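User: Design a sequence. Structure:
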């Protein structure tokens, strides 16, 4: 689940790690791609075969400080929150990112608003 992925990334950055290994899944790969495009991560590689596939993530640092300053989980396993298109707002006045799972796939808030789709709000990151 995405909560485990984001928590691992945040903790690895606080511990000043260079890379991080997480289990491969389509959801994890989609979230990592969004974070790379928005500048929160350097990159990733798929490694392993079959059921032992994993993703090796290269973390990003700016001035010896992690690129991720904070995370707020919106949906959790016990409670799901869904946003309509008109409910999607900027995070931290445009300096943050809202990640949404839509019928067209996992995307950031700006793209979801542009494509005119709502969905389950996963988390905010800044």
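Assistant: Done.
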């Amino acid at each position: 689940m995405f909560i485990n992925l984001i928590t691992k990334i945040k903790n690895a950055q606080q511990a000043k790690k260079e890379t991080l290994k997480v289990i491969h899944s389509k959801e994890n790969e989609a979230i990592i791609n969004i974070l790379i495009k928005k500048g929160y991560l350097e990159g990733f590689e798929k490694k392993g075969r079959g059921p032992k596939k994993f993703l090796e993530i290269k973390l990003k640092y700016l001035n010896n400080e992690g690129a991720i300053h904070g995370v707020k989980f919106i949906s959790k396993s016990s409670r799901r929150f869904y946003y309509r298109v008109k409910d999607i707002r900027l995070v931290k006045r445009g300096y943050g990112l809202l990640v949404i799972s839509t019928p067209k796939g996992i995307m950031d808030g700006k793209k979801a608003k542009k494509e005119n789709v709502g969905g389950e709000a996963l988390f905010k990151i800044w």
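The chain has two domains: 2-66, 71-125. The mean pLDDT is 95.
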